[in-house]
Specification:
This protein has 14 helices and 8 strands. By secondary structure, the chain is an alpha/beta fold. The N and C termini lie far apart (71 Å).
């Protein structure tokens, strides 16, 4: 199958590689041309502009966008939409908000252009292991790209979740759950580290042990095993944790639908806390304890008590 790929970042580049290895024809464009030249050396056709990418595709065209959510996706989608024609199909594979998918699909439908949203999970390991893909769109549109979806995913790794928006909605919930799982591992290991037994535990071996038949086994533990093998106490890493946006959207969705999700909300808020050393709210707590109970507080300059 012939497909245009816009966006050759950590996910898009390896997805293009996986498609090439499966025998598909990929026309590739990236904002920075070095990435385009790199994939062209591996068998893709390079496009220097979005217009050139569209010209190199045979109608009815399929264009897959693999870009960061927000302005980058909106800008490139707007550019490519002006070049496409009725019967063409856009696949949005980034981590977009599902409400944006519904709006975009409506706008493109007025011009006869189809739209599919694909929530993709697999990270940097997807090239070798395949990409778990959650898809939203009209059945005919999804069926049209079935060869692409099949070859991107491992066996059983694709699900048509429903109409436009459903793929990114399910991926949003997936990432919200991921936040909670990661936070649980972090908190549990922190309790171990602070205990009398912490100094005697090899956390890489522990992660491997827990993946041998325990009820908390997971791929995340495999990744932790690798991380601890390289840095046994993670001393080279600062405890600053970003969020991609989908954790926020999951919590917002919980509020909108009145669903209790305290674990996912707490995991998201903990990420916010990680970015603020000596956070103001913690200083407020310390000041209140000093005022009502005469408790000592740490001096912000010396670190000593006063």
């Amino acid at each position: 199958m012939r497909i245009g790929m816009i966006g050759l970042g950590r996910m898009g580049m390896n997805m293009a590689r996986r498609l090439l290895r499966a025998g598909h024809q990929v026309v590739a464009f990236n904002r920075t041309p070095e990435r385009t030249r790199e994939i062209a050396a591996e068998g893709a056709e390079a496009a220097c502009t979005v217009a050139e990418l569209v010209e190199k595709l045979t109608p009815p065209r399929v264009v897959w966008l693999m870009l960061p959510a927000g302005a980058a996706t909106e800008d490139q989608l707007g550019a490519v939409a002006t070049l496409l024609a009725a019967g063409d199909l856009v696949v949005e594979g980034g981590n977009s908000l599902y409400k944006d998918d519904i709006r975009r699909a409506g706008e493109l439908a007025g011009r006869g252009i189809g739209y599919v949203d694909a929530g993709v999970s697999g990270g940097i390991w997807g090239l070798a292991n395949g990409y778990c893909t959650m898809v939203g769109g009209e059945p005919e549109a999804v069926a049209r790209i079935e060869p692409i979806l099949r070859d991107l995913a491992p066996e059983g790794g694709v699900l048509h979740c429903g109409p436009v928006g459903a793929g990114h909605f399910v991926k949003m919930i997936h990432n919200g759950i991921e936040y909670g799982m990661m936070q649980a591992y972090g908190e549990g290991l922190a309790i171990l580290e602070a205990s009398p037994y912490g100094t005697g535990i090899d956390y890489g071996q522990l992660a491997r042990l827990w993946n041998r038949g325990s009820v908390i086994r997971s791929w995340l533990l495999e990744l932790l095993e690798s991380a601890f093998a390289a840095d046994p106490r993670l001393t080279s890493i600062e405890g600053y944790v970003e969020d991609s946006g989908e954790g926020r959207w999951t919590v917002q969705q919980a509020v909108e639908t009145g669903v209790s999700a305290p674990v996912l909300a707490a995991a998201l808020f903990r990420r916010f806390e990680s970015r603020t050393p000596n956070a103001f709210e913690n200083r407020v707590l310390a000041a209140l304890r000093r005022e009502f109970g005469g408790h000592a507080v740490k001096n912000a300059v010396s670190g000593g008590e006063k």
